[in-house]
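User: Can you write out an input/output pair for a complex, sequences first and structure second?

Assistant: Here is one pair. Inputs:
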Amino acid sequence: MMRRRPSLADRPRWLKPAAALLLLALSAGAATAQAPLHQRIDAAIAAGTPNYEKQAAPLASDAEFLRRIYLDLTGTIPSADEARAFLKDGTPDRRAKLIDRLLASPAFARHMATVFDVLLMDRRPAKFVPAPQWHEFLRASFAAGKPLDQLVQEILAADGADPKTRPAARFYLDRNGEPHQLTRDVSRLFLGMNLQCAQCHDHPLVAGYLQAHYYGLYAFLSRSFVFNDKATKLSVFAEKAEGEVTYQSVFDPTKLTKTTGPRLPSGPGLKEPALEKGKEYVVAPVKGQRPVPRFSRRALLPGLIAGADNMQFRRTVANRLWAMMLGRGLVDPVDFDHPANPASHPELLKTLTDEVAALKFDVKAFLREAALSKTYQRSSELPKGVEEASPRTFAVAAVRPLSPEQFAWAAMQATGLVDADRKALGTRATEAALYARLSGNVIPFVQVFGGPAGQPDDGFQATLDQTLFLKNGTLLRSWLAPRPGNLTERLGRLMDAGAVAEELYLSALTRPPSDEEKREVADYLAGRASDRAAALQELAWALITSAEFRFNY
Amino acid sequence: MKPFYACNSPEHLLSRRRFLAGTAAGGLGLLGFAGMVHPAAADQLRRTQKRVLVVWLAGGVSQLETWDPKPGTNTGGPFQSIPTSVPGVQICELLPHTARHMHRLALVRGVNTAEDEHSRGAYIMHTGRRQTPGEQFPHLGSVAARLLAPEDSPLPGYLHVTPRGEGVNRQDAAFLGPRFGSVALPDGNMPANMLRAATLTEAADRQRDGLRERLNRRFNQGRRTAETEAYTYSYDQAAQMMSRRGIFDLGRENPRDRDRYGSHDFGRHMLLGRRLLENGATFVKVTHSNYDTHHENFDFHIEQLGEFDRPFACLIEDLVQRGLWESTLVVVMSEFGRTPTINRNMGRDHWSRAWSVALGGCGVRGGAVVGATNANGTAVTERQVNGGHLFHTYFRALGLDSRRNHYHSGRPIPMADPQAAPIQEILA
């Protein structure tokens, strides 16, 4: 039996006049600009697909929405009590209130720090900057509502010499300052262009990715290197005043050598100051001393990449934030933006790009609008009569695997490890205290479920070691053992099978059980009076290892 | 990139299962893989499935004490060369058992990988490329796992029998994804978490699996994707793997074979290699450590090759005898060779300019020797090749077009270095 379809009563009342709003948005022309962004998103998504209304899934039930918004904004699932409270809340604006509450919570900044760490560092091991300092820099930035352009500028400006900004230098330093690696990652992350293929020749398939683009960007970084300061025992990012960039195409039979100064793919060439010979340095390069050039190419990078004039940065920010919430970029893959791979909804991407600037790179404000859209709030279940939904239409919500971190935190919440620790900490149970106690548990999940260090986490594969880890591993098993306040201990105190089923399903799957599922739980327990405690652990295991738990749907 | 729902469809998996199950279609339960294979289908599978065995002589084996001896020269060292089963081809006297199988092996004596550092040399030999910043290429084992392993094989495609180590090395697979990383079998032991918890009875395990499967069926009704399918199917694979864990158990081997291979670590590991290949493994790497002989090169090679020679010859014999030789590519390699010059500690140092690789089996012309070095082995004089050429050769030997591309997020990435080509002289 399918889960109950969302009925009209499940929908927030403010969404009821949706059709009217849609009409308004489609027809009102100039007036559309005044409509809130989330309505303009829905209008543009609807306009992008013929017969959209027929293909679009209805709005998700409150339970489905609740699980999704928790995972997307806080990186975990709600507790059974939180789920109960929300599912009981009959107020029309309950979804908007929840979105605002989660965005304001410390868990949001924590989750953003995790997401941006993985995005920016590709799970590289820490080398020169301790990972907790970098994480704290990101967390504090999101907690303070730091605009994203400012955050990126800080990262690209940090060289590690100033203790105040040293954590931000992890981006450069823990890549060993390797200019090719940095060229690839700066273009991929901040310009949405994976120029890797253009390192040795113009991209063979993408007309817009030229070798000149690659080396223009490379020229900002090629003079930089990691300098190990013997006096302070710190490695910092340093730069020379000389070194021109030359390159040849491996496809060119004449082996013509070209040269380029620093330049962004879409930008003009830069005029560099002509310095008198002998005056190229503020601190000249002598052994054991970090050189400081009078003119730094790298210092231009933060302003050019994340400055107000770079439309490509703004567009990439819009596309990547969209993908974070919707599971897929309007331009997909998110680092393959070029004319032959157009956005699924070009007008919407243009709107979002403008809004990124209008919202002054405020991540919360942007995510809030995305979350308020019907597009985000649709069910992931294929509507009746629809055979297949192309992910390009955004007509049905995506089914996305949990990240290793989401999986670990959700499993800790489902098994009640978090509840038990909160109980044990009592009044000292702040977000930071719980994080300090529990975050070590994330490491084994990242080892087993994470991609290789230095590679973007993309794609999903189920591997044998992952499944054996969940099936036979000691970690999950230890979380399932009863302990004051955790799930199996709570279940053990409930005598009625119906109550067990309800607590179990709300804790692990953030929804009440169906009648069939209640019966299943009762049947499961019926034959196990002698080892009820073991049976309860098996029930919890089955829910946590189900596909419904493994995916954000 | 997220796979679109097509290539990994359950229909595809199902048809493979049917093929494996022969006429007993539908018997998909959790029986062991081998138990399901219909004899006729097993024969067909054996003929069509290709396998790879890499023997990795860690640290850098000396080409002069193995495949390219130079006795009587200033660099030759104390050992003589001996005739082999191929007239005119001589190898070092430390490999008498291997010499009897020379007509099954090919030697590449003009290898110049121009990289004398361990990890970078190993990278070249495992990936066929020089290390470049910003790009990571997959191991041969990961590529084989991706292209040669049956989709529904319960065994991971890339198995690594290693003296030490644990877990799955995801880095090896690069952009192919963690599913194709190497799974370590430390000292020949089975992978982690293969045993059911002592506190969980078999009946209880089945019962909780049953509930999980019912939940999945309901979830998949309206939300099935290639990814949810892959996830739910991985539990079937895990169960099959657990039920077949006996393939890691050398105790089930004939004691006579255990004697033939030897009771030392490498002998046991090679016997396990045979056992895995016989039981459907696609790519097995067996590491023998350690050949980094900066001191006492000759004593160490007596010891190390004394361990290597007999089990390697046994494995060749057994693969031939079992009809697996023609479909199994066997390669013996290191990160580099060793300096012709003998240092003052009677050692040889790292040397990548002129060394040798031996291979045989699937697609390889037995008895062929290609490339040559000068009289005292200090330079390649004939048919110089690098890691790229070797990769083209491996792929071609396995019947794969080495000019094909991998695709990573829509980007084509040549399977083998486009500036190199196969070594045709040793291809069958």
